[in-house]
Amino acid sequence: MQEDELKLVVFRLGDEEYAAEVSQVREIIRMEKITRLPRAPEFVEGIINLRGQLTTVISLRRLFGLPEEQMPGRRIIVLDQEEPTGIVVDSVTEVLSLSREEVDTPEHVFGADTRFIKGVGKREDRLIIILDLSRVLKPEEVEGLQEVRELVAQEVRE
Predict the structure, then answer these.
(1) Who has greater pLDDT, 25 or 111?
(2) pLDDT tier, 1 (very low <50, low <70, confident <90, very high otherwise)
(3) Backbone angles phi, psi at 27, to 5 degrees
(4) Does residue 113 surpass a pLDDT of 90?
(5) pTM of the model
(6) Where are the alpha helices (DSSP H) in the chain?
(7) What would the mean pLDDT of 5-10 be, rounded to a whole number?
(8) Across the strands, what pairs with 127?
(9) Are 127 and 106 spatial neighbours (Cβ–Cβ below 8 Å)?
(10) Are 119 and 128 contacting, i.e. CB atoms less than 8 angstroms apart?
C-alpha cells in the first residue's frame, strides 16, 4: 500500500456508508448472541465470549442516535485495541483503497461532531464517512464502558 492511500473497511448503517482504516479492525464476525448487561449505558449491546475473551459490544446505531433496525446482514467489527470491543453495524460491504485526493478533511463537514470523523471519501457518486473508531466514544462514554467492564470482571471472578 502506498503512503498516499487509505485502506478502508466499508460498512453500512441504514442508507449511509461509513469506513474505518483496516489498521483499526482486528476482525469481522457474524452476529452472535449478545448477553445484555443490567445498568449498562444505552449504547452497550452487551458482551460476547470471543474465543474465551469477554468482549464488550456497542451499537453504533444507538451511539449515532439512529432508529433500531434488525438488519439480516449485521456484523460485529472487533476493534484492534487493548480492551476487547466490538461494534455492531448493519453490514460490511468491502475493503476499499482511496487515494488522499479522494478524501476531504473533516473541516469540510459542517454541523457534525467531527472529533471522530477523519474525513469524507469521494468515489464516483458515493460519499463515505471515514471514522476514527478509537474516538467514537466521548470520554464520559469511555468511562461508562470501563465501569461495565469492571462489573463484568468482578462477576466473573465471583
Answers:
(1) 25
(2) very low
(3) -165, 165
(4) no
(5) 0.84
(6) 60-63, 139-157
(7) 95
(8) 122
(9) no
(10) no
Q: What are phi and psi of 150, to 5 degrees?
A: -65, -40
Q: Which residues contact 115 (CB under 8 A, 6 or more apart)?
A: 135
Candidates 1.10.10.60, 2.60.40.10, 2.40.50.180, 3.30.310.10; CATH matching 5-157: 2.40.50.180
Q: Where are the domains of the chain?
A: 5-157
Element (H, E) at 103: strand 103-104
The CA-CA-CA angle for residues 66, 31, 85, to 5°, reads: 75
Q: Which helix (H) or strand (E) holds 119?
A: strand 117-123
Instruction: Give SS3 for 121.
Output: strand
Cell 449505558 maps to which residue?
Answer: 41
pLDDT tens, position by position, 143-155 = 777 777 777 667 6
